[in-house]
């Protein structure tokens, strides 16, 4: 799991260091740089996958401009400087990613990582040591260090980071699959993944999805095809108030979004770390609050790390600032236009006139947390 991120010279982020948790909620004005934080993580993930081409980046949710605009275009003299991103993991592993581009037409980004550089350097050292000099030069120590480096590199499980932005159409047309499996950024492939989860020997996974759908007071049950290879492209949903069942094509949009989010957290095949942009889309405010608590519980249960953006104050009421695994960040731009992020902790929570803590939604709307437009 990621513990700390340091980003330099990436889009609107000039120099930013952030300690993150298991569940990270990001709020702020439109254009303040919320998505740029998520996109920096996609950039690192692409580097770990050795796929820095635009096709790969776009398919994972990164908006790819010209190289000059991928770098911070401020006046501090860093226009041509490389993008640098440091990631610190909870297993005492950290890596520095240095991204460069020649700015030529059709040129691709290249990356140099600290661990890869050290591995290459020590492999060169091992290859140049003569057998008779092996012990004199502590060749065994070099080899041991090289093996440790490779073990550290292999412990980074960050190749699959995606920014999900589910869309109604993709969720309704179940037979459509995206180029990314098991789930595309807009929700493609949901039916196939539900079939896979339904085939698990441990039925607690599918039962968790069904139990979570009880958020909707009209919901009674859902029937998912058992045969993964079946061409059947629908699930059957039972509304306890109706005598006839219906399929996902007739389900309301909010139901499909919740089904997608819960499946994303529960499935073994989905990334261990991912982001969801605008988690509040199509959801009732009270449902937003409850969804946030459920996502947090599931992230802990299934060992996932999530990054969420929202503009809905109700989402904030579902986060527990007394839990060190849950983080709330307010994003804004300073006088130079640089993206900055402030963590809101339990001790920062504003109080009312009678000294009682305000609900975070109310504090947000009153402007006590920041993250609201000031120009009108």
Would you write up a description of this structure?
The structure is a single chain. This protein has helices at 34-48, 54-59, 67-70, 114-128, 139-154, 168-172, 190-198, 204-212, 253-266, 285-301, 313-316, 360-365, and strands spanning 2-10, 13-19, 23-28, 83-89, 94-100, 110-113, 163-164, 219-223, 236-239, 246-247, 273-276, 305-309, 326-333, 339-344. By secondary structure, it is of the alpha/beta class. The protein has a domain at 163-270. A hairpin with a 2-residue loop joins strand 1 and strand 2. The radius of gyration is 23 Å and the shape is globular. The protein starts with a strand and ends in an 11-residue tail after the last helix. The mean pLDDT is 90.
């Amino acid at each position: 799991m990621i513990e700390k991120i340091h980003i330099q010279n990436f889009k609107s982020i000039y120099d930013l260091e952030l300690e993150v948790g298991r569940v990270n909620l990001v709020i702020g004005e439109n254009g303040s740089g919320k998505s740029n934080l998520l996109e920096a993580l996609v950039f690192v993930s692409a580097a770990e996958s050795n796929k820095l081409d635009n096709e790969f980046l776009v398919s994972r949710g990164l908006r790819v401009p010209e190289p000059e605009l991928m770098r911070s275009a401020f006046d501090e003299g860093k226009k041509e400087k490389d993008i640098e991103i440091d990631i610190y993991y909870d297993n005492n592993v950290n890596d520095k990613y240095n991204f460069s581009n020649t700015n030529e037409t059709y040129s691709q980004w290249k990356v140099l990582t600290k661990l890869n550089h050290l591995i290459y350097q020590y492999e060169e050292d091992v290859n140049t040591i003569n057998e008779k000099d092996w012990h004199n030069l502590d060749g065994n120590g070099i080899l041991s260090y090289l093996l440790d480096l490779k073990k550290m590199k292999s412990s980074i499980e960050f190749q699959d980071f995606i920014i999900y932005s589910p869309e109604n159409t993709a969720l309704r047309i179940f037979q459509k699959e995206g180029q990314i499996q098991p789930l595309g950024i807009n929700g493609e492939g949901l039916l196939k993944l539900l079939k896979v989860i339904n085939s698990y020997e441990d039925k607690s996974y599918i039962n968790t999805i069904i139990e979570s759908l009880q958020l909707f007071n009209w919901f009674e049950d859902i029937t998912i095809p058992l045969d993964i290879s079946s061409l059947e492209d629908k699930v059957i949903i039972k509304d306890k108030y109706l005598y006839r069942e219906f399929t996902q094509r007739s389900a309301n949009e909010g139901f499909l979004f919740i089904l997608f989010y819960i499946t994303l957290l529960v499935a073994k095949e989905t990334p261990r770390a991912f982001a969801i942009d605008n988690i509040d889309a199509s959801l009732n405010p009270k449902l937003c609050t409850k969804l946030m608590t459920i996502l947090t519980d599931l992230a802990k249960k299934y060992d996932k790390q999530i990054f969420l953006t929202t503009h809905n104050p109700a989402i904030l009421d579902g986060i527990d600032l007394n839990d060190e695994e849950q983080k709330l960040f307010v994003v804004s731009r300073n006088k130079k236009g640089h993206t900055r992020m402030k963590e809101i902790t339990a001790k920062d929570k504003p109080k009312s006139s009678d000294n009682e803590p305000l609900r975070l939604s109310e504090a947000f709307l009153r402007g006590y947390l920041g993250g609201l437009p000031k120009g009108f």
